[in-house]
Amino acid sequence: MTRYRVAVHIVPRKGVLDPQGKAVADALHALGFGAVREARVGRHVILDVDATDAGAAESSVRGMCDKLLANPVTEDYEIAGVNAS
Amino acid sequence: MRFGIVTFPGSNREIDASLAITEGVGGEVVHLWHKDHDLQGADVIVLPGGFSYGDYLRAGAIARFSPIMQEVMEHAKRGGPVLGICNGFQILCEAHMLPGALLRNASLRFASQWINLRVENADTLFTNAYAEGRVIRVPVAHGDGRYTADPDTVKALEDRRQVVFRYVDRNGNPLPDANPNGSVNDIAGIINERGNVLGLMPHPEDAVNPLLGSTDGLGLFESILARVAA
After folding, report:
1. Topology of domain A2-84, per CATH?
2. pLDDT tens-place string over residues B168-193
3. Considering just the CA atoms, what is the radius of gyration of chain A in Å?
4. Which ipTM did the prediction report?
5. Which of B17, B132, B140, B173 lies in the 20 to 30 Å Cα band around A11?
């Protein structure tokens, strides 16, 4: 078993109104960052998991996302990194 | 008939629900703890309002895996009535006992105010004491009440008359200003296809006594008593 650090990004799905993201984009525009086309605000979760290899660590985290960490109705997630720690 | 009210860590309207049932309509209440595996003979389960688990991760996401939810789901599968109010509605959606999800209010502000609801379907276990189309006045108190579902799901809910309560103005008209959270189609409460699981964001249990400013919420508990006792 190796310990892996797995990072997950969870963001509101495209097409789902994200008022937080919109407020952030509006504030950035007000600060002069006019190049911002869109902002979406989500969550970043870091998990330390024991697994036989990186693939197993990733697939177990996908299971966690499907069951608890992300809501399949409104959110998308992506595994942002799997690193032996 | 016995109502079982589940208390999760962070629930805060379980006493309101209890008083609405006992003093409001003369029903019997048993309080259930989220870690129990026993519904103690309850005929109707109520998931009350509050902020279970501090709304961590998503409102209702963690409470949905509480031990007692196993029994609540089995109760619903047997056709037993389940009522989810506010956080209870969020838990029912997270548990996939109702379709869709409840997201942060479009205004990004916590909504604590009196609102008007139109009873869209009075032919349910939970609404038969109301006249269909009646406008009732009840409070809301939530930060994550914006009902969302994919367009096909929303259409199916509308076609099957599963939208039971809709935000309207006092004259019964759906208007953007009458919707406190930006929910799709002004949806405030929905029922499952089988008709035994209802979730709504507003608080009928807090509109059961003239001292509270309204008694319009009593009809919901009277409806359940009438149908389940019969």
Report:
1. Mth169; Chain: A , (3.30.1280)
2. 999 999 999 999 999 999 999 999 99
3. 16
4. 0.88
5. B140
